[in-house]
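User: Here's a chain of 305 residues. Predict its fold as tokens.
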Amino acid sequence: MGLQVESKEAISSSSKIRVKNEQNPGWPVEAQPAPLFILEPSRGWIPLRLASLWEYRELFYFLIWRDIKLRYKQTVLGVIWAVLQPLVTMALFSLFFGYLAKVPSDGIVYPIFAYTALLPWQLFASSLTAAGNSLVMNQSLITKVYFPRLIIPLSAVFVGLVDFGVSFIVLLGIMYYYGQIPTLAILTSPLFVLLAVGTALGVGLWLSALNVRYRDVQLVIPVLTHFWLFATPIIYPSSLIPEQWRLLYGLNPMVGVIEGFRWALLGQTRPLDSSIFVSVFIIVLLLITGLIYFQNTEKSFADVV
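Assistant: Prediction complete.
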């Protein structure tokens, strides 16, 4: 008999079985049943696990770098498009609304008035669109690899900061051309940029999760951003809104972002009124509810996407 079992006791299926080779007594052979793991999704509402994002930070950096390269891949002008888009839009707004329609601009040269609003707006609109479609665009990754799904819309939002940074340098050049020198209030501009990113992320979390189940959402996003554009003080100043409607108007979180960013760059408007605080409250509310909804629906993404 080639193999002899050392123990005659009953051994369960999960125990280790040690056998000894009689021909080579110094060479033991171990046989152990492979463990069986059954993964089941959590039931009901689950708490946020934001700390897990840090463990996958390298994937977060990779997705940002990948999206940046794909955005301008095989384009002749490359990153110059980041400057051309707001510049062309500014020129059109200045012609039709500033010159022909004579829309007031609170004493600010209309090109600067429009451009200072277009920068945070395009950051918001592009980030919202990217985040809303991010899960559907990465469905092959979601169905094959486990990682916190929150990384996907989060990385999509941060990609827009590259275009914003390039366009911001151009804005400083335009301000210098028109003799508009920024004050120390410009140091607060990152705060309003952060609010724009937070708004895009908060709404994007809702839309991305809904887009997995209802593909109509990806068709709604362009309509939503176009409507949102005219409900935001970009081509007109918020001073045109009657005082009794100001609080309701401030429910649009981008009102506070645009007005605050203009104030930080131009210093000719006072942003810290009731509409600003209402906008900040709405942004925080969107972020919290978006995170909770996303966290508690991501368990079904791989099955539905």
